[in-house]
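Incident review: delayed structure delivery

Summary: a single-chain prediction request sat in the queue longer than the usual turnaround. Root cause was a stuck worker, restarted by the on-call engineer. No data loss occurred. The affected request and its eventual output are reproduced below so the record is complete for anyone auditing the incident later.

Affected input:
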Amino acid sequence: MSQTSVLYIGESASVLNKRQKEFNQLSEKIEQLDRLIPELQAACEQMISRIPTDLNPLIREYQTYRAEIVLLMDRTYSGDLFRKAYQTKLAYLITESALDLISNHGFEELKPVFNKYSEVDIETILAQERAVDSQKITDPAFLLEDEAGKEPDLNRPFHELPVEDQQRIREEQRNERVRQQIAKGKERKDMQKITKSVRNVYMDLVKAFHPDREKDETEKLRKTEIMQRVTQAYQENNMLQLLKLQIEFERIDQDHLENLTKNQLNYYNKILRQQVEDLETEKEKIQKEISAICGLPYQHANSLTTVIVKFNTNVNEMKTEIKNIKNLLKHWKVPSQLKAYLKTYQIPNQPFEEDDEQ
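Output delivered after worker restart:
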């Protein structure tokens, strides 16, 4: 929202009463929200625009190292270097990691590895997952066109497409979602968010000052100018400016707001409370979008700086995770170090086996 004009009842000789204090508090709150909401929206759009360049490549690199570890464990298992108890743990780790990498990150090349250690074929598992998720799919990957405008064969199930097509389609799907989020953010920013409280005040002013209802030409010109100011404030969803205009046209200037009657204050406070509620709802919606993107608790998303710092922290943490998994891969290439890990590892929901190896 654009500029707002502060409405504030100054202290006169007497102390402000309860209604006057509430008027001031509500006006200040609206001013704060009018500044904060565009700031949070800008933070959200900035994060969305950075995901494809700053975060997604790191995630892909990290998952690639996970895939290398799966292949390393497969070679170790096939080398028959460890006794059965350790091989059981290896098989469990291979299937768990491979399933996640295949299902969620597109590492189709791990399907044969998964099938070596699983009693259930990977295609059966993926089919079950698709059946569960079928009601949630709103943007199927196979409906997206490639850069040349050629659509995938809709008569073939997605999992039967060539690996290259599947990877390309998933990448297009991710990019399309990012484009849609950016477009949605811009649309929300450009769209006039006319709240119910603003509309009520606007309609009151229209009834009082619409020039078409005026026969006197001089008064008609005056009301035309008034309606231009009213319309601009309405289009900007600027409650405080609308109220300022309403008060101004009631011949109550800024220096004499304390002279508002009890009924006037009750009316204005009711309108201001509704506007605060509307703006708080809008703010919370943006905060929850931010939380979904960067993991920051939405209540803590209270400034552009805080949000971007959290996103940058996520990026740096991913870089650290990449460094750690690279070192892990290097260490586990030495069988004795992988064996030392397996010795202490316990498969979930299974009793711990004592190591009786001499």
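Verification: Residues 158 and 166 are 7 Å apart (CA to CA).
Action items: add queue-age alerting; document worker restart procedure.
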